[in-house]
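Me: I'm a chemist; would you kindly supply a protein sequence with its structure tokens?

Assistant:
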Amino acid sequence: MPKLDAVIFYTHDVPAVVDYYTNKIGLKLEYTSGDKYASFLFDNGVKLGIKKATEEREVPGSQTFFLAVVDAKAEYELAKQKGLHILKELVEEEWALEFSVLDPDGNKVEYVQNK
């Protein structure tokens, strides 16, 4: 079975998104190419690429990814302290405790503490 290697989000401002994902979300920056591209590396080897939108189909703000966390309540409080744009407040669902934030382009980052 194939393994996920990378996912690409599109942005209008690569440096702003790099700052957001490293300093607000806490992702590990793997590579950057000025204002054109950056990638972040997760512990499981999957990469999140951020590319400056240059083609018609590359629409910033319409992507979502999920971050599995050990303590969603603590992450939620940290997100509020950092002034992140909370899209969905912390809620307990049947499958998980979760909340979501929006990055500078409006992409959704969903924090999930699975049950």
